[in-house]
Model the fold of this input.
Amino acid sequence: MTSASQATTPATSPALGQELDIAEAWMKEGREVAVATVVETWGSAPRPVGAHLVIDMDGNFEGSVSGGCVEGAVIADAMDVLHSGEPKMLEFGVADETAWEVGLSCGGRIRVYVERVG
Amino acid sequence: MDPANLKKLNAARNGRRAAILLTEMESGRDRVVLERDAVAGSLGEITSAAFRSGKSGMHEIDGKEYFLNVHVPAPRIAAIGAVHITQALAGIAAIAGYDLRVIDPRTAFATPERFAGVDLAAEWPQDELAKRPLDAFTALVAVTHDPKIDDFPLIEALKTGCFYVGALGSRKTHAKRVDRFKAEGLSEADIARIHAPIGLDIAASNPMEIAVAIMGEIIQAYRTRPVHAGEGAVREPQEA
Done:
């Protein structure tokens, strides 16, 4: 028996991603893991509420919260969260002063919650 | 996130059970809520609404902010009958992102040659479904034309609450099926959930077109499942 169609998961269902399984696997390997989650979106956002990006202390990551626009900034903040253990709420959007540096070119706005596992 | 909750959540997700990770934003504390868990008060109302809608989102309860990440299993198709329509449906289902398995005890039909790369069980539905049961996130498609093979899985699908139940056959064939199911003690409301004749009415006239009609009907059933989302701050993500 095969499950050839497993790779074709609809992009609209964040629950179908494997990021949380990866986070658990990393945790079992003894790696420090942070989980970033899209908790709110306004306007046109590239990834839906619930989407995950998981990051380890070496900056390895899987998944996405924006499809590439703000991942760099989220990973940098995840490093702080991994060190301090304190969760952070991040907000990105074109309204930001830093729109040209880290923003959503699609014009939307998102809130991303970053927390450490454990 | 509590590591024990991450494990519990993953166990539920991988076991095709709906689960919610509930995070209280101020403290960062979380818990996993499974569908049958009793949750008291307004939080309980919001979690049940979220299970029905499948939508993740931020909610405010008694001045506290909660994030509900709702994990609902991916939809699947169980096709009874390794027939020509099913061969076409296997290709279309893969494109639409639905896992499909084919069940048919007739070994002349259920051959790996006819279903290369498809999850195929050359067994009676009674046996196969005992091993891998149906669930609310599965669509049941019965296309053998043979009551000996189709009836059991159809009844099982109605009892399990499959989000879609479709059966091939003319109106006359279906009328006989309705009589048999009534005799089995199924309610009219249950029987009315069977899509028969199967597939959207697009005047499909060959197996490939019928497969398209069936897939369209499954998608429609999945995307219009009865939803009673709670009031509050659930915002629809929009397409970029």
About this structure: The first helix of chain A runs from residue 19 to 28.
